[in-house]
Amino acid sequence: MSEKRLLDASSGAPVKRHMGLKASRTAANTGIYCLLIIISVVWLIPFVCIVLQSFRVESTWQEGYVIPKQWGLDNYRNLFQTDFPRWYVNTFISALFTAVFQTIIVLCMSYTLSRFRFKMRKGLMRFMLILSMFPGMLSMIILYRVLSDLGLTQANSVPGLILVYVASSGMGYYVSKGFFDTIPKSLDEAARVDGATRFQVLKKIILPLSKPIVIYTVLTAFMGPWGDFVFARYISFGTSSGMNVAVGLYNWLNKDQIAKSYTMFCAGGVLVAIPVTVLFMCLQKYYVEGVTGGAVKG
Amino acid sequence: MSTNSDLEYLKLNHWQKIGYRIARFFVGIPKALGRFFVGIWRAVSTFFQLLGRELADIVGTFVHGDWKTRLSFVVMGFGNIARGQVLRGILFFIFEVVFIGYMVLTGGYWLSMLPSLGKVGPTEVYDEILDTYTTTYNDNSFKILLYGVLTIFFIIAFIYTWRQNVKQNKLAEKILASGKPLRSGKEDLRSLVDDQFHKTLLALPMTGILLFTVLPIVFMILVAFTNYDGTHNGYSNNLFTWVGLDNFNTMLNWSVSKGSGSQSYAATFGEVLTWTLIWAFFATFTNYFLGMFVAMAINKKGIKFKKVWRTVLVLTIAIPQFISLLYVSKMFAKNGILNGFLMSMGWIQQALPFWEDPTWARITVIIINIWIGIPYLMLITTGILMNIPADLYESARIDGANAWQQYSKITLPYMLFVTGPYLLTSFTGNMNNFNVIYLLTGGAPTNPAASGAAGTVGYTDLLITWLFKITTGPDSQYYLASVVGILVFVVVALISLIVYNVLPSIKNEEDFQ
């Protein structure tokens, strides 16, 4: 008897609590859905606006409304009357070369620091940490002068830019070092015992396992030059044919140019964003892995 | 603040622990300073001990070595070649020849000019035949400083190589005396892909870092002690020269008021630094907590379309910042979409001064930064949140903890523990967040009291954008930019040092287990 009552009580209470929990959970979830929808809208609005404004025909000036009164491709057509294609090619070339060389350098650096134990290792890492505390902007003046002595500024800025992007990229080894740290060292050792050289270990064992980090590095290296406008502006100063998209489009929003090129900026922005975004979305998985891994390992 | 015993310390809650550590840090400063100087003293004495040992070893090698070794002191690589290590010997010898050639041809000139940074400025000579003035550029301070530094690098490299050369002779004698063969050139080459593989791998990256990061930084640190600017560029204009600590005095002395508008540089620096710290604090922590909140909302059990929400946010990472930030900056402008929308709805009569009013501008910048930052934080925190053991929550729920308690007792401590180092880098990263500020406001609205010969300074300017403005300003006062850069370094290094001393993840690894 008493046992049965106990059982009832014990089974009744959880059921009741479960119901209450479910109701409150549904309420909470509805709230969260609303919030997520609001967030999505807020995050997407600027991009929707930029696309809509790029199709506006009636005015090239920024107006207080978004939906064009007259739709058309005029802005896109006008883009090709300017230096925009040149900038696009410049950026694409520098992004491509940067992606290749920066990946090689970053992987060399991070693999070495993760796998080898040599005398200067700790000191080297501490040294680079200290170096990274100096604002990189300072180097701009001297790098500009050096590149201009080499003839790699203004119209020839693309090779100069690639050189600068790639040369100091070894400092950004943290994320991929964190990745290499997670590959068990016993793999290396087993191969070494079998008589493989260090180079063979890297080529035959580590690299095949490193696809995610290679893709992450290539992706971030490729995206970098599309957004750089500080150094690119300094280095291509005053020469339209040496600019990249960021510099060119930035100049269109100057006080004296914005009236006639605001919608063209929108159109250019859309054309720049599309390939980068598509690539990014395809490789999203690797990016997320890299970013999460990098933050945890610091 | 008295020292707590271990037991008392463990009784404190998380925030009290952090507070306790911070207090301990400041109480410990005198001691730490003492330790610092003792450390320096030790480092110096160790250095001299090492130096002495090296010198003794060099002398010993010379005294006890055979004639091949002794000749190698002058002709680098001779001993290697004489003992059959031809490849190494040739490389040593070539390096020596290149070094001597360089020093004789140009290095000596750069080095001798380094103390004065050039004596003869550009001169103009009237050319009667062409009826024009032709300019001769003579000494070039910029090149003297740059190549002077490079030459010093080269000399250091040479001393190191020479020492290696001596060491190898001693080693070779020892190996030969024990009757073993020396490594052949072929074996040397093979070792570069094997047990010396790290040298091969590091060669390229380190050369890049040395030439494109270390050299510029050394150069710019030196510039802070010169008067290098647009009118003293040491090229087409006057030479520049060493001025000692004058620039630091200009920047940091409250009573010196020149150049920077109506107030001293020190006052401007103080204002900009304060705003930089406020900005970095809010930019880091608003993003951190809101990003964590969004991640938790998406991760919550029973929420569908997780992938969709995440993809929407990740999309904003993909689009280059200069597009999104410039566009958003124009959206908030006086005649931008947002004001237009609000006015057409009749909610406001006049445009809101998003970028015109200092306080509005500062708040708007922080809010837009949230828009930029949340997607990253969402990604980062999602992974970590999933790693928190579910049974922690389970047992907390059984004990009757509500959602807030679960968050503040489990989620937050865990997150702070794991992401501590990330928070630090993100704080210092935000201090130097050039893109967001420059693309959104360009530092505007202008602060009239602070703007002067070094260019305009605005209320939203960070130290890094100010540095940029000084560099590209009307007078291009590179020397002041360098001073600001050095001060940025000092601030960042100080903060990192403090945080590393307070941070639980570094100090107390067992804290969360």
What brief labels describe this structure?
heterodimer; A: 298 residues; mainly alpha; MetI-like fold; 14 helices; 0% strand; disordered N terminus; B: 513 residues; 3 domains; two-stranded antiparallel sheet; 21 helices
Q: How would you portray this structure in words?
A:
The complex is a heterodimer of chains A (298) and B (513). Chain A has helices spanning 2-54, 74-79, 84-115, 121-131, 139-149, 157-167, 174-182, 185-193, 198-209, 211-227, 230-235, 245-252, 258-282, 284-297. Chain A has 298 residues and is mainly alpha-helical. Chain A folds into 2 domains: 1-45; 86-297, MetI-like (MetI-like fold), CATH 1.10.3720. In chain A, α3 (84-115) runs antiparallel to α10 (211-227), α7 crosses α14 and α12 (245-252) runs antiparallel to α13 (258-282). The model of chain B is unreliable at 506-513 (pLDDT under 50). Chain B is mainly alpha-helical and 513 residues long. The chains are: A mainly alpha (298), B mainly alpha (513). Chains A and B meet through α1, α3, α4, α5 and α6 of A and α9, α11, α12, α13 and α14 of B.
- Strand order across the largest sheet of chain B: 1-2
Mind telling me the C-alpha Rg of chain B? 31 Å
Structural class of chain A: mainly alpha
Please state the average pLDDT score of chain A: 83
What is the tally of helical segments of chain B? 21
Backbone structural class of chain B:
mainly alpha
The major sheet of chain A is characterized as:
none
Unreliable stretches covering 5 or more consecutive residues of chain A:
1-17
Q: From the 3D coordinates, which CATH architecture of the largest domain in chain B would you assign? A: Orthogonal Bundle
CATH architecture title of the largest domain in chain A: Orthogonal Bundle
Largest interface: A-B, 87 and 92 residues
Instruction: Profile the largest sheet of chain B.
Output: 2 strands, antiparallel
Average residue pLDDT of chain B? 84
Kindly give the count of domains of chain B: 3
- CATH superfamily heading of the largest domain in chain A: MetI-like
N- to C-terminal separation of chain B? 28 Å
Q: Note the gap between the termini of chain A.
A: 62 Å
CATH superfamily of the largest domain in chain B: MetI-like
